[in-house]
Design brief:
With 211 residues, the protein is α/β, with parallel strands linked by helices. Helix content is 26%, strand content 28%.
């Protein structure tokens, strides 16, 4: 269960939102500039809210009065819009980066490699990949972590129509199998995410939830 009530002030913009979410998928479906990325970064621990609280599965991640758990301890995985691949690691090494090195390669790795159309690029380095291949590798690395809270910021960016449909199906199957609390920020391809449980609309930084 995720419980959020935060405020984040910027010079020309204030993000103010309050909602709760079980092991479900919520869409952040507002236009660019409405605060979707800021919200995800606050949840991930990459930005500090000015007030409020963030509670995940009974653990306080943030409280204005002295609690701000580091990102690495939050059991959260964020797929950002940036290229966050490690350039010196292959596709396989990037996907497995967050796992203990003495573990055997889990079945999920091979499943994601196949469903993300990355099998032919397993031993390739990021500099040899196309933009879409890089995005799919970043998504795969995010999903490999099997986090309690999964945050996806524009996961369809740079992908063609067929791949968008494939990724949407993959995400639906993944969320139903592993049941993370999931937030997906997107202002396009919403028709591919009809299986999501609810939506959160941000307008001028303020939120309204729709089932």
């Amino acid at each position: 269960m995720l419980e959020v009530s935060i405020t984040k002030q910027f010079p020309l913009f204030t993000l103010k939102t309050s909602f709760s979410l079980g092991k479900e998928t919520m869409l952040l479906c507002s236009p660019s500039g409405s605060g979707k990325t800021t919200l995800l970064r606050c949840l991930a621990g990459l930005e500090r809210p000015d007030s409020g609280h963030i509670l995940l599965n009974g653990r306080l991640l943030f409280l204005k009065r002295g609690i701000n758990m580091p990102a690495s301890f939050r059991s959260i995985a964020l797929m950002s819009q940036d290229n966050t691949l490690f350039p010196h690691l292959t596709v396989k090494q990037n996907l497995l980066y967050s796992l203990p090195r003495n573990d055997k390669t889990p079945p999920l790795y091979y499943e994601l490699l196949h469903k993300l159309n990355l099998s032919a690029h397993e031993q390739c380095y990021p500099e040899t990949l196309s933009g879409g291949e890089k995005r799919r590798t970043i998504l795969g690395r995010t999903l490999m972590r099997r986090p309690a809270l999964l945050l996806l910021d524009e996961p369809f960016s740079g992908l063609d129509e067929a791949m968008c449909e494939q990724i949407a199906t993959l995400l639906e199957d993944y969320c139903r199998s592993y049941r993370p609390v999931t937030l997906i920020a997107s202002h396009i391809r919403l028709e591919l995410l009809g299986w999501a449980n609810c939506r959160l609309n941000l307008s001028n930084g303020k939120s309204a939830r729709a089932s």
